[in-house]
Amino acid sequence: MFATGIENSIPTIDNGRTRVDQMESCGHYKHWKLDFDCVEELGLRFLRYGPPLHRTYLGPGRYDWEFADLTFADLKRRDIIPIVDLCHFGVPDWIGDFQNPDLPHLFARYAGDFAERYPWVQLYTPMNEMFICAVFSAMYGWWNEQLQSDRAFVTALKHIVKANVMAMTEILKRRPDAIFIQSESSEYFHADSPAAIHEAELRNRWRFLPLDLNYGNRVNSEMYEYLLENGMTKEEYNWFLTHRLKQHCILGNDYYLTNEHRVFADGHSEASGEVFGYAEITRQYYERYGLPIMHTETNMREGPTGQEAVQWLWKEWANVLRIRNVGIPTVGFTWYSLTDQIDWDTALRERNNRVHPVGLYDLDRNIRPVGRAYKKLIADWRELLPASSLCLVVPVVPPSRAESGHAREQREAAAEHLDDVSTEASSPEIGG
C-alpha cells in the first residue's frame, strides 16, 4: 500500500487561544481537488486523510458534514482508498483538551457516526500518534493543555488510548471488516554514558505504553507502578486488558530523523539523529506486538541540492525492503505529506507561517524532486512486491467495489465472527 497523506493537525497553543490548522495553513480547504489530482498523478491509490475534527464535530450528535461530504465523495469517485485520520493532535474547543475524562465517549460517538455516514470506508487511524500527542500536550507543555508532569501525561495517555479503542469498537459495529492502521511514532533512547543507562532503559519501556494499552499488552512492573503512581487506577488498567482489538490492526509506525534520542546522566535528552534507523527500531516493535507493519510516516526537508529528501526516501525504502526480506510482514509505505507543511520546524509551537519544505509538492502544487522520485519508485515496485506472497495481501475493498457481492460477503463473514472476537478480547492472557 503505497500512500501519502494530507496533513490535518489541529493542536491549540497559547493556552488554547490559537488553533493551528494545517489544512488551512497549507491551502487544502481551497485546493482540495487539485490535491487529489496530485495524488492521482503520483500513481497512488491510498491516502491518509480525514476531515478537520474541530470544524466537523460541533457537539454531541451535532455535525457539519459539508466539507467531508464533498471530499469523500470525490475520493470515492476517483477510487482513492482513504486511511481515515479522525483525530490529529487536537480536539474541538467544546471538548477542551486531552485531560477531559469525557473524551473517550465523545470521540467514540463521532467515530461511529462517521462510519455510519460513510459505510464504504474501511481503513482507519482513529487517533494519530498517541505517544506524541500525549507527550507534546502533557509532558513537554507545547500543545493543547500545555502541562508538564507525569500525572498529566498519564491522564492524557489513558484518555487518548481509550478513545482510540472505543472508536474502533464503534466503527466495527458499522463496518465489521474495518482495518485499523495505527500511525505511532517509533522511538529509541540511547544512553550517553553508564550513568545514563537506567534512564535510557526506563524511557525505552515508556515509549511502548500507548501501544501496550491499545493492544492489551501487560506492561512490566516498573511501568505498572508508574501508571498507578500517576493517576491510573487498577480498574482503568484492567479495562485495556479486556478490550483487545489487536486482531483488527496493522502496526503503522512513523520514523523521522528526530525519533532517536541521546539520554544524559542528569536525565535530559536531545535528538541523536539516525543511529539504528528504521529497520532495527521497527524490528523491536514487531517482536513486541507481532503485527503486520506499515511505514506510515516519514519525510525530509529539501535542502540546497534538492536531493536531500530524495536520498532519505531511498534510505527509508531500503529499510522497508530490509525488514520485509528478513521475514517481517510489511504491507505499506508512506511519504508524509503530499504538500509542504507550515511551522513544523518549531513543532507547531509558534505561528510564524514558515514553510517546511518536506512535501512531494510545494504549496503551489509544483512537484518536488522527491515527488518525482516517489512516483518512479511506485511504478518500479508496485507490481513486483505483491507477487512474492499472496498471504501478505491486505483484504482491502476499494470504493468502487464496496457494494459488490464479494465485499458484502466479506463484511457478513466479519460480522459473524465479531461475537467470537469479543470473547477473545476479554481474555487478558497476553505477554509483554
UniProtKB/TrEMBL annotation:
Keyword Hydrolase: yes
Keyword Acetylation: no
Domain of life, source organism: Bacteria
GO MF annotation terms: hydrolase activity, hydrolyzing O-glycosyl compounds
Region (Disordered): 402-432
Keywords: Hydrolase
Biased composition (Basic and acidic residues): 403-420
GO annotation terms (biological process): carbohydrate metabolic process
InterPro entries: GH, Glyco_hydro_1, Glycosyl_Hydrolase_39
A Pfam family reported for this protein in Swiss-Prot or TrEMBL: Glyco_hydro_1
Name by which UniProt lists this protein: Family 1 glycosylhydrolase
